[in-house]
Amino acid sequence: MCGRYASTRDPATLAVEFAAVDATGDEAPGADYNVAPTKPVLAVVTRHPRDAEGTPDPGRTERSVRVMRWGLVPHWAKDASVGSRMINARAESVAGKPAFRTAIASRRCLLPADGWFEWQRQAQKEAQQAQPKRARKQPYFLTPADGSVLALAGLWATWRPAGSDDPPLVSCAVLTTEAVGPLAGIHDRMPLVLPADCWADWLDPDSRDPGSLLAPPSAAVVDGLELRPISTAVNDVRRNGTELLEPQQPDQPALIDLDS
Fold it and tell me: Using CB atoms within 10 A as the burial measure, which of 84, 110, 219, 238 is most buried?
């Protein structure tokens, strides 16, 4: 799954990295070392630009960096609170889910990240057998070893309260897939990470079926990640600073051997 990540690059930097324009205006969130559901996040989309009357130009596309809220709210939802339960969408079944099937066909995005957080169950074998639900979890930060940006595959939607003329709420969800290679030793799910050569196809507003792009990342993508044990300070969503990403030595042995 993906329930927390870090995103510290500013929109201007991301616009260069993703060959996009910065359309965040004054809404862009600052550097966030502990992005949690319902927070505003930066997303990359490709759309047909619209004229003054709102008519899209089918002959042109524009890639842009936008601000969305993490936790997808379908257009048919009665209220926005449903978004807190829709932060992830499973790649294997997304096309068949009412909340996501429209978005997967026509509203795909990329969520830039420095890396994401995951928790691995930790405990001495005796303690786990006695109280398995209370076994300690060791947090990890999974990040590109070369410091490059990650692009998490996402979906987005717009929502307005019934009868409202206010600007719509734009929200998003992260696609997840089966964990690959050593990542499976930490958790059985992971975000769907897309390499740069897949960005254009994923964002294409005229492509209704992402097809093979929904497959788990290749071994090459996973091999480029650092699996960094970090402090349990990240467990507190109120904490937000560079110290959350600092490497730490796990203080208990893992139940699963990452080298196996």
Answer: 110
